Amino acid sequence: MGMSVTISVATEQDVEQIFRLQYLCFQSEAALYGNYRIDPLVQSLDSVRAEVASDCVFVARLGEEVVGSVRGRVTEDGAAAIGKLCVHPRLQGHGIGARLLRAAESALAEERGAKKFRLFTGHRSEGNLRLYRRVGYETVGTSKGDDGVPMIILEKPAGTYATTA
């Protein structure tokens, strides 16, 4: 019975599962803000497919099922923008998010030359903020998302990979 969750690079075959998982996972964020037009809920399947093809995308698998994912890309200023970290609600709280972050951070620094890591989360997303702070991220500013949600910007230097939370 005891299958373990594995972390691996996402492939084209994972796109539809990532798309469905993202839609499921970000429902609670949308409810928190009373805004069901947040980017992860309105992103198209083709857009997810393009990100998997070009960005650094990892998935967590339980057997054949994708139960978590994260994406990252290096921006013009040398920072790695990490986004859309999600873990299936039934598996949250078991360190899978931290493992996904660690995989993305490692690849972005070692393979794509990221100098620091940057991510955004909603100002009311306490669980997300706890995870990010626990793995070394610090608040560096605020912004407003394209969807109007107030966001907190967090960063950490590329030399500090996430540790298991």
Number of strands: 7
Residue ranges: pLDDT <50 for 5 or more in a row?
Answer: none
Strand numbers in spatial order across the main sheet: 1-2-3-4-5-7-6
Radius of gyration: 15 Å
Helix content: 25-40%
| Overall geometry | globular
Helix/strand/pairing category: alpha+beta
* Distance N to C terminus: 25 Å
- On the 0 to 100 scale, the average pLDDT is 92
Number of H- or I-type helical stretches: 6
Q: What pattern of helices and strands is seen along the backbone?
A: EHHHHEEEHEHEE
Main sheet characteristics:
7 strands, mixed
Quick structural gist:
This protein has 165 residues and is an alpha+beta fold. Helices cover 34% and strands 32% of the residues. It has a seven-stranded mixed sheet with strand order 1-2-3-4-5-7-6, with helices on both faces.
Note down, in words, how this protein is organized:
The chain has helices at 15-25, 27-33, 39-42, 45-54, 96-110, 126-134; strands at 5-9, 56-62, 65-74, 79-87, 116-122, 138-144, 150-157. It contains six helices and seven strands, in the order E-H-H-H-H-E-E-E-H-E-H-E-E. Strands 1-2-3-4-5-7-6 form a seven-stranded mixed beta sheet, with helices on both faces. The chain is 34% helix and 32% strand. The model has no long low-confidence stretch (mean pLDDT 92). It is α+β, with helices and mostly antiparallel strands. It is globular, with a radius of gyration of 15 Å. The longest helix is centred in the middle third of the chain and has 15 residues, at 96-110.
